[in-house]
Amino acid sequence: MKVDDFGQYSEGHPIGQEIHDLIREMYPICRSITGEGVRRTLDIVERWIPLRRHEVPSGTRVFDWEVPREWNIRDAFVADASGRRLIDFRAQNLHVVSYSLPVDRMMSRAELEPHLYTMPDRPDWIPYRTSYYDEGWGFCLAHRDLQKLGDGPFHVRIDSELAPGSLTYAECVVPGTTQGQAIVFAHSCHPSMANDSLSGVAIAAALARELLRGRPRLTWRFIFAPATIGSITWLSRNEELTGSVQAGLVLGPLGDAGDLTYKRSRRGNSVTDRAALQVLRGLQASPHIEAFEPYGYDERQFCSPGFNLPVGRFTRSANGKYPQYHTSADDLSLVLPDKLRDSFAAIGTTMAAIDFNRTFVNLSPKGEPQLGKRGLYGAIGGGSPERLQYAMLWVLNLADGTNDVVEMAERSSLDLQLICRAAELLEQSGLLKAV
Ligand code: ZN
Questions:
Q1: Predicted structure pTM score
Q2: Which of 176, 254, 284, 381 could form a disulfide with 199 if both were Cys (CB 3.0 to 4.6 A apart)?
């Protein structure tokens, strides 16, 4: 993986459509934090990349939490007395509150109503609701349809099962040449919504496929797991490994039209944070960078004080920051191939820079070394030979054993990709040595 490898994923490249097609394939499946929907989703991801699957039994203690019972659902509806389905899970899986207990009986409107959820301010949208940790059941529907529901009696049926089973997560491990680890986490637990969380899953799969074409320096672990309980479970089973995690990214919604945004790790100045800032600086006049807060996606777990890992987060419009968030309007039309492609390229560039990043010393530090006799004049990369030349001068000057490559990009205000390319050429020519 080289930093400029991701330069090819610019306008016109079909990767965005490919990622969109993958989202489309996963979209109809009813996922939750456990159950068959997750396994079927991983089956689809596995056609792109090899996965190591893990099944963690219900009841397993994971830090302060416990792996819940497994939830599966076959069918659900609210029907009128003649059997006509008024709310139908088969038409839209968001209709059922995730983790709903089984129900099968006739009831009046008064009995049913406390179990119905709508969005009066968005009367055509179906909200997304869960009841993972408090036992109950419910239906979600468009407010407009609630008004047409009638007085009942209703046949209410949820053909679900909540029983001891397991929590499923998967990893794609891309082995590196060193012991250092890096992680990429995408939550795989949402039912039919495209931006949250399938865009993250699909982009993680595409990035893993890209990395598998070469041999990175760090060992990259792509983790597909349910939000919160999944990252906590992974951490509890990989505690020993966390000591060698040098960088990490959580991938949230990445396909909508919002600006690509990076949220810093709790450390605030980790290599992940610094590399992401430099990549966004190359793309945006004023980079969209958010400070850490203990709210959001799974960075909350990776950045909990007992771990404090250098894990930041990439999103476009984040949780709660776009109107379609956690509703049926987060559909396939909200995720745009061009935005998916640009997210993929920027995150890939950040990962490649992290993978390349080291601290170098200039082995010929007294006066400028002669580039010409080493064939470095007129070398190509990052635009013009002059730009690359200029970047080499910066790298040689700052390679005093105290600055890493990302710091060289900060200090020189040159593109991180260009600085990486210059350092790579200088290392190959024997003028630089990593410390
Ligand atoms: Zn969500």
A1: 0.96
A2: 254
Distance 123 CA to ligand 1 centre (A): 20
> Ligand 1 centre and the CA of 196: distance in Å?
5
Task: State the residue range of the domain holding 423.
Answer: 359-434
How many A from CA of 132 to the centre of ligand 1? 13
Among 339, 356, 373, residue at a domain's last position = 356
Give the torsion sign (CA, 382, 339, 216, 394). positive
| CA of 190 relative to ligand 1 center, distance in Å | 7
In the reported structure, the alpha carbon of residue 385 is separated from the centroid of ligand 1 by a whole-number distance in angstroms of 46
Looking at 129, 163, 197, which one is the last position of a domain? 163
- pLDDT tens for 395-413 read 999 999 999 999 999 999 9
Q: What's the rounded mean pLDDT across residues 212-230? A: 97
Residue 341 pLDDT > 60:
yes
For the domain that residue 57 is a member of, what is the CATH number?
A: 3.40.630.10
> Ligand 1: distance of its center to the CA of 314 in Å?
14
Cα(227) to centroid(ligand 1), Å: 8
For ligand 1, the distance from its centroid to the CA atom of residue 318, given in whole angstroms, is: 9
Q: From the CA of 296, how far away is ligand 1's center (Å)?
A: 9
Asked if residue 348 and residue 232 are part of one domain, the reply reads yes
Indicate if 315 and 351 belong to the same structural domain: yes
- Within 8 A by CB and 6+ apart from 70, the residues are 34, 35, 58, 162, 163, 164, 165, 166, 167
* Alpha carbon of 432 to ligand 1 centroid (Å): 45
